[in-house]
Each structure stands twice: as C-alpha cells, then as structure tokens.
Amino acid sequence: MNNPTAVGAAANTSAGSRMFRYEVVGLRQNAETDKRDYPIRNSGSTFITVPYTRMNEIMQRITRLGGKIVSITPLDGNGATANVTAEQKTVGGNPETKQEAQKAEKKPMTQAKEKADIPVNIYRPNAPFVARVISNEPLVGEGGIGICQHVKFDLSGGDLRYLEGQSIGVIPPGVDKNGKPEKLRLYSIGSTRHGDDLNDTTVSLCVRQLEYKHPESGETIYGVCSTYICNLKPGDEVKVTGPTGKEMLLPPDEDSTIIMLATGTGIAPFRAFLWRMFKDGERQLNSEYQFKGLAWLVFGIPTSPNILYKEELEEMQAKYPDNFRLTYAISREQKNQEGGRMYIQHRVAEHAEEMWNLLQSPKTHVYMCGLKGMEDGIDEAFSAQAAKAGIEWKEYRSQLKKAGRWHVETY
To answer: Which residues make up the binding site for NADP(+) (predicted)?
Structure first.
C-alpha cells in the first residue's frame, strides 16, 4: 500500500534524496505501449535513474512488464557510482538475500507477440519441479455428473512461468502396467500468468476424474493421473513439468473478437482468458492489456450442476455485458431444433450466420478446447454457412489457421 506520509518523510532525509540507476533487460513493447513515453517500456537494455523514494514503485512496474534487473547502482552527488548486482540489491534500504533477489526476479510475462517470447519446457520430465498443493476444490454441484476439481499449486522457489493457453505436465507416482515409471499427463492451465492469488507464485488446473467401463469385463476403470490429482490434499507434493503449448495463446490486440468453444474441462484455458480480460485485479496488473473487444464463450456441459466456474462466468458477464457473451449448451436439459439433445455444435449452428460475419474481420479468433468429437459438428455448421457465401469451408478454415486465427486443442 502506498503511504504518502512515509514517502514524504523519506524525501526529506539524505537517503530519500539519493538517486539509483537500474539496468534492466527483457522489456518488450506492443502497439499500445509504444504510444506512451515511459522509459521502462523500451525494449533491450534500459537504464533508469530513480530517487530512493520511488524504488519500490519502479521495481513493481518492471515486474509487470516482464523485465529483469541486471544491476542497481547508487549515485552520489558527484556522480560516482558503486555497482550493486541484483543478488545484492537493496529495496527501500533493506538488503535482500540472494534467495529473495532471485524470487523478485521471477517476472510475469508480458502479452506474448512472438513465439520466441513464449516460455516452454522450463522443467522437463527428467528434472521436474516439485510443487505443493494449496487447495483442491470441487467444481461439480449437487446432482451433477462425475468429479471435477479446481486444484491450485504453489510454485514458490521455482522458475515455472507460463502464459494463458499453455499447459503443464503432471507426473503421477508409481509405475505403469509394464513396471515403468508413470509418464506425465498434460493439463491445460486454468489460471492467468499471475495465478489465482495474483502474486505470480501459483498455477491452477481444472481436472475431471476419468471414469469409464472396460469394454470386455464391464469393470469401472479410473484414470491414473486424473484420480491422483482429484484426490490430492493441501500440502501434498506433486512433480510438474512445462509449460508447453504455443497454439492457444491470446492475440495482443485489445480490440479482438475471441470466440471460445468449450466442452467440460476444456473451459480451463478460457477461464484464464476471461480472468485476464475482466477480473479487476488482473486488469490493474496489466496496464499494457485492457481488453475492449468481444469475448463469446459457448460452453457445452451435460447438466446445470456441471457448469464449471458458473458464478465466476456469470459475474463477469453481468459486469461486462457489452464485452462478454455467454451461451450454454446443456445436453441433458435443453433440446436442439430437431428435438434431440443440445450439444455445442447445435449452438454453433444456431449462431453460425453471426459467427461467420464476425469471422470476416481479421481481428476475430476462434478457440476450441475439449472433446475431439465436437470438431466435426462445428465444421458442419460453419460449412453450411460458408456455402451460402460460395466458399468452401475447409479451405477457408485452412486460411484462418495459417493466419493464426483458428486454434484447436481437443482430446
């Protein structure tokens, strides 16, 4: 919290009037920040001179923009300098330990523009990061189908950075049927780069326990890793890898139209998108990204109690009715035009003309995440609409993908 009285007092002391020079690297630009005359928004190696009283403020701004402090140099009245490395730096007059300095340098990523900016495989299967479970909360309401959990992990002490739309791997304990160590499973991240607590030290997953009948014996089979995750307790340690994925990232354009098609736990990356777009705390952290476009989520679920993150979604829709549109396809409660169950492809077919018109803008992106079975029905809906315009859908879809506007992650 900013305390004007304390700042004013410091400014009247010799320490408060001292100047310090920061050397910063890794700051990136976008079209919006280029318009602003902020020295720390320039890319490359940057030197910033600040008074003692503004050191914390500037460090926080550097953190928000993904920069790394190389050195902090005190300046005396005669211009003499004494170099101070990031490991030895002082903040507000208090020397930090090496561990604290390294933690401070774990910067959140700015909105990715180039694939070179995207963090990938910071932790690999042969050297995973050991995260600790903070919480494990049920997402399916009473009367719903199956088990689905929102699991939050503590990443403190590590360097696992990620962007919205990426995934992490989880390595379950034990061995497989061949006696070999279990392999990792990938899960879409359900939190923004800042984490649910907005402190850059957590990551969250949305995990459904896999359950099916054995085709021959009829025995109920439970997924190894999903069952492991769904039964984790706060304090448990988990081996994680990643992040991975460059396909599902948000465009940097704040005026984009983002059409999101999700089934079940496919909501995970879109929860991260929507938090980044509409959550108050996120918007305060992201001065370089203030979403002003249209986000349209079509969410397919079997029953109303299976609407994952229902309160969050509807709260954001109520607060931003002009920017966030929410459409449900509840298969066991709603009927399609033919009188059958309402699946996500039927909702897309209902709105195909409007979506097709939105697709004519180069700022429109379509994201699809969830069960692979929805792809054919969605293609069919768009194909019928494209045909009205004399366009072959598959060719058009290929052009969208080549332009980076058609994003699919299904399983």
So the answer is: 188, 208, 265, 331-332, 370-371, 409
Show the tokens assigned to 303.
């029953």
- Can you give the pLDDT at residue 64? 62
Query: Which backbone phi and psi does 58 adopt, to 5 degrees?
Result: -70, -40
The verdict on whether residue 371 carries a ligand-binding annotation is: yes
Question: How many alpha carbons fall within 13 Å on the CB side of residue 387?
Answer: 6
Domain topology for 257-410: Rossmann fold (3.40.50)
Angle at which helices 393-402 and 374-388 pack, to 10 degrees? 110
* Domain chopping of the chain, boundaries: 4-107, 116-244, 257-410
Does 265 carry a binding-site annotation?
Answer: yes
229, 144 Cβ separation under 8 angstroms: no
Instruction: Flag whether the pTM goes above 0.85.
Output: no
Looking only at the bridges linking them, the beta strands covering 167-171 and 94-95 are: unpaired
Task: Report whether 332 belongs to an annotated binding site.
Answer: yes
Catalytic residue annotation: 187-188, 369, 409, 411
Can you identify the CATH homologous superfamily of domain 116-244?
A: Translation factors (2.40.30.10)
Q: Of the candidates 227, 244, 83, which has an alpha carbon nearest to the alpha carbon of residue 162? A: 244
Q: Please tell me the predicted confidence (pLDDT) of residue 23.
A: 72
Domains 116-244 and 257-410 fall in the same CATH topology: no
Interval 309-364: pLDDT, tens: 999 999 999 999 999 999 999 999 999 999 999 999 999 999 999 999 999 999 99
- Give yes or no for a contact between 269 and 204, defined as CB atoms under 8 angstroms apart: no
- Distance, in Å, from the CA atom of 100 to the CA atom of 271, rounded to the nearest integer, reads 31
Copy the structure tokens of residue 84.
Answer: 């101070």
* Per-residue pLDDT reduced to its tens digit, 363-407: 999 999 999 999 999 999 999 999 999 999 999 999 999 999 999
Give the residues of the chain that fall short of pLDDT 50: 1-16, 28-44, 77-113
Q: Is 156 annotated as a binding residue?
A: no
What's the rounded Cα separation, in Å, for the pair 346 and 344? 5
